[in-house]
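Task: sequence design from structure.
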């Protein structure tokens, strides 16, 4: 578990272990990226996504392709909105979160 996790999670209405919360967050951001790239750029980025890490107040997304990172920076607002919409359905509230592409 990362040290900054307590800062990352503001409120959770159910007693779900933090490990499962982390899985929900990682899955939600992964799927948000795929959905936004398909709808906005018509690009399937599944083969370019490597991993997602939660560090302090950041979500780090690693890809195989620097061009995907550049495009993701341009789509950050849409990815964030899609992601926040997904996790709000799980009653997870985040504050001071930043998405970074590496």
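Answer:
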């Amino acid at each position: 578990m990362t040290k900054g996790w307590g800062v990352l999670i503001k409120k959770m209405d159910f007693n779900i272990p933090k490990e499962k919360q982390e899985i929900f967050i990682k899955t939600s951001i992964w799927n948000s990226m795929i959905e936004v790239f398909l709808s906005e750029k018509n690009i399937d980025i599944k083969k370019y996504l490597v991993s997602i890490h939660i560090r302090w107040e950041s979500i780090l997304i690693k890809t195989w392709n620097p061009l995907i990172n550049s495009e993701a920076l341009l789509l950050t607002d849409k990815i964030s909105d899609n992601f926040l919409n997904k996790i709000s359905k799980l009653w997870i509230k985040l504050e001071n979160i930043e998405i970074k592409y590496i």
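The first helix runs from residue 5 to 8.
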